[in-house]
Structures are given as C-alpha cells and as structure tokens.
Amino acid sequence: MYKIFGIIAALYGMLAVILGAFGAHALKDKLDIYQHSIYEKAVSYQFYHIAALIAVALLSPKINSKTLTLSGWFFAVGILLFSGSLYLLATKDILGINGLTPILGPITPLGGLCLIIGWGLLLVSFRKL
After folding, report:
1. Model confidence over 6-50: pLDDT tens digits?
2. Number of structural domains the chain divides into
3. How far apart are alpha carbons 108 and 14 in whole angstroms?
4. Measured distance CA(112)–CA(69) in Å, rounded
5. How many CB atoms lie within 10 A of CB 128?
6. What is the chain's mean pLDDT, rounded?
7. Is the pLDDT of residue 56 over 90?
8. 47 close to 3: Cβ distance less than 8 angstroms
9. 15, 56, 64, 125: least surrounded by Cβ within 10 Å?
C-alpha cells in the first residue's frame, strides 16, 4: 500500500502547489477576503494531510495492518472532500455553481470527519510499532 499512498500524496502535493499558486495569483482580484480565507484553508489543510499520507506510506512496510491502510484511505478521501469542497465553495461565484452550496456545505464537515478518523486510525497504528 505504501506505493499507492505515496502516489496519492505526490499527486495531492502537486495539486496543492498548483492550486495555491493559482489562488494567490489568478484569483487574487476575483475573490473577496472571506473567499480567499476559505481557499487558503483548503490549501493549508491539503498540505497538512499530505504529510499524514506520506507518514502512512512510509510506515506501511513496517506496520502491515488494516488499521494503517484504512487511515490512508480516510486521509485520501478526507482531503478530497474537505479541501475539494472548500475550493468549490470559495470559487462558486466564479464557477457559477451557487446552487450547489446546499450540497457542498455538508460535504466539508464530512471530509473533516474523514480526516479526524484518519488521525485516530494512525494513532492506533502507531501503538502497533
């Protein structure tokens, strides 16, 4: 599983840099202060949890457990749901997707819950060292 989580972490890392630069430059004058803060939160949390995914990838050869594997999947899905929904919420006016706000709003905490579960499972995995 270390290869899969390493690939996912690298792809998410590449996307975080691209989206962060895009937000700082291309969206600079298109988002208001609140939208920028949402966008920046998405980038930050994506980076934080990429580090967690890398930890899962590096630990996989040492701890071959279902708990660690689940942790990695919860991080991967959590990043997609949490940061992904925040990117969309921050840019909904530009993208013309205001009608999706009632759907995107609940996705963010669901993604956050996935991230929390990922950390809990990682904690249990560390106990197996």
Report:
1. 999 999 999 999 999 999 999 999 999 999 999 999 999 999 999
2. 1
3. 21
4. 18
5. 12
6. 96
7. yes
8. no
9. 64
Spatial neighbors of 89 by CB under 8 A, at least 6 apart, are 38, 101, 104, 105, 108
Q: What ranges make up the beta strands (E) of 18-128?
A: none
d(CA 111, CA 104): 11
Tokens at 113, concatenated: 């819950």
Greater model confidence, 128 or 119: 119
- Sort residue 11 into left (φ over 0), alpha (ψ -120 to 50) or beta: alpha
pLDDT of residue 127: 87
Percent of the chain with pLDDT over 90: 93
The two structure tokens encoding residue 66: 């279902």
Residue range of the domain that includes 80 = 2-126
Q: Which of 89, 88, 20, 90 is nearest to 48 (CA)?
A: 20
CA–CA distance, 108 with 99 (Å, rounded to integer):
16
Cα distance between residue 79 and residue 19, in whole Å: 14
